[in-house]
Amino acid sequence: MNQTIPTSILLTLITASALGGDPLDNANWDAAFGDPGFQVAVLGAEQAAAGPSAMATDVAGNVYCAGGNWNQLDGIPYDTPPGYAVWNRANGQWSPFGNNAGAAGVFEMVVRGTDVYVGGQWSLFVEGSPFLQTQGVVKWNGTTWSALGSGLSEGPFGLPASVEAMVFDAAGNLHVGGQFAKAGGQDARNVAKWNGSAWSALGAGLDSRVSTLAMGPDGTLYAGGVFAEGLLRRVAKWDGTQWQPMGAGFTSGEVAAFAFDGDGNVYAGGSFQFITDPNLGPNFIPASRVAKWNGSAWSPLGPGVNAMVRTLAFKNGFLFTGGQFTATGDGATPLAQVAAWNGADWQALGQGTSHMNGPSSATVFHLLVASSPSDPSNQDLILGGPFDHAGGNVANNVALWNIGSSAPTGPRLHLVSSGGGSFNLTFPSTVGMNYQILFATDLSGTFALVQTLAGTGEDLVFPVSALSGRGFYQVLATSGGN
Question: Can you give the residue range of the structural domain that contains 311?
Answer without folding.
Answer: 23-406
